[in-house]
Amino acid sequence: MPQSENVVAVILGGGAGSRLFPLTRERSKPAVPLGGKYRLIDVPVSNCINSSIMRIFVLTQYNSASLNRHISQTYRFSSFSAGFVEILAAEQRKDSPDWFQGTADAVRQILPHLRDSRVKTLLILSGDHLYRMDYRKFLERHYSTNADVTISVIPSTPEDAQGFGLLKTDSVGKITEFREKPKGDALEAMRVDTTNFGLTEEESERRPYLASMGIYVFDYEKLLELLGADENAVDFGGELIPSAIDKYNVQAHLFDGYWEDIGTIRAFYEANLDLASPLPKFNFFDTDSPIYTRSRYLPPSKIHDCDIDNSMVSEGCILNGVHARTSIIGLRSRIDGGVRIESSIIMGSDFYESIDEIKANIERGVPHIGIGTNTSVRRAIIDKNVRIGKNVKLLNHAGVDNYDDPRGSFFIREGIIIVPKGAVVSDGTEI
Fold first, then answer.
1. How far apart are the first and last CA of the chain?
2. What three-state secondary structure class fits 233?
3. 209 in the Ramachandran plot: left (φ > 0), alpha (ψ -120 to 50) or beta?
């Protein structure tokens, strides 16, 4: 990549995160915990750092306090470096009185903050995807084709393609057409020969579509032209990209690794549990491209008389007589004897309770933070700082698909039980 190119990354924090509710009830989407000790935002930020892109803005407007705290406590570059990770929250100004209306509008509204950065190339990323990418290859494709815009695409099967924006290209990868979530004949018309991008004929037959990953490289001046040409355009995928294809050199960059859009409870649940499998699709154990997160300096976990398999246990946990299968056990989890956990995500706690605090809570009939004795948890997501008492059964025996508890103490989404942050589940409760 030419050293003269001045690259800035902008990570879009997303909207209200309604599809990830209740995990987003008190936090923004990028701040949702991942893999027992990380947060979703750590993935794109780490990809940037591993790609030597050190000037990073994160755009948010919903429940951004925990994200702000995580960013400020985690990403502190050297005083002798020009690098930064900075939160840009939506703000109301005389010339822009509204909150972010969409992805393109969010970038339009933060342009005043970019003017002093001498940006030549803008890398636009999403804050809720799980993947590992060297953005330098993405940028090399952009520069080598003299592109105005480059879109990262992933080969897709017909079943998956219906949920994405699809692209058609010519034989050298220049994008000629874009359609948002086509169906039927419109979907069939978007087939391309993906052997032109290096896929085998067999693989090309299985994945004949090019799906937009929602990440872009823009020549900064061309982006200003696009944003200025239509002040009413608020979205990249639905409005700006189709407009750019008609006017500019828009290229495709093929990414053929693991990529998951963690935008729904089921996608979040399945991607997390896969991390604990013997051969996960996304591997945190990569010394060349590590995923960074906050250093907490916690003690090693204490594990007594436990039977744990196909699971991940984070730092600072105290586990006594726990049976766990295919599960994630997060930071500072305190789990008592006789507890059975199956196919579940336990996010852990933000702090430790002292022995005196635990005794005082017991006297008041309040469970300690964690999971009490002889409790069973299956196909569930237990958010942070949750208090689950003794002899509780979180099993969804009735097979309920979706449900909202009137008191807000638990939810069910696609058969997955979710206990939200800070909730209390009393002794003997059965769900």
1. 55
2. coil
3. beta
- Look up residue 89 and give its two tokens: 């929250």
In sequence order, the 6+-apart residues with CB closer than 8 A to the CB of 356 are none
CATH number (domain holding residue 315): 2.160.10.10
**Confidence (pLDDT) at 21:** 93
Of 241, 258, 255, nearest to 180 (Cα)? 241
**In whole angstroms, what is the distance from residue 138 CA to residue 279 CA?**
27
Q: Report yes or no: 122 and 10 within 8 Å, Cβ to Cβ.
A: yes
Residue range 163-176, pLDDT digits in tens = 889 999 988 899 99
The CA-based angle 36-42-44, given to 5 degrees, is 135
Q: What angle do CA 300, 301, 303 make, to 5 degrees?
A: 140
Please indicate, yes or no, whether residues 230 and 343 belong to a single structural domain of this protein. Answer: no
My answer on whether 245 and 386 are in the same domain is no
Residue 1 has pLDDT above 50, yes or no: no
Predicted pLDDT at 4: 40
Domain assignment present for residue 21? The answer is yes
Q: Which domain holds residue 383?
A: 302-425
Residues 135-152 pLDDT 10s: 999 999 999 999 999 999
> Do 14 and 50 reside in the same domain of the chain?
yes
Q: Are residues 140 and 191 in the same domain?
A: yes
Domain boundary among 274, 289, 316: 274
Supply the CATH number for residue 122's domain.
Answer: 3.90.550.10
Query: Would you mind telling me the total number of residues written for the chain in this entry?
Result: 431
Angstrom distance (rounded) from CA 287 to CA 291:
9
**pLDDT digits 0-9 by tens, 346-405:** 999 999 999 999 999 989 999 999 999 999 999 999 999 999 999 999 999 999 999 999
- Separation between Cα atoms, residue 179 and residue 182, nearest integer Å: 6
408 conformational bin, left if phi > 0, alpha if psi -120 to 50, beta if neither = left
Number of structural domains found in the chain: 2
DSSP conformational letter for 248 = S
Q: Do 50 and 191 share a structural domain?
A: yes
Peptide bond into 22 cis (omega under 30): yes
Same domain? For 192 and 333 the reply is: no
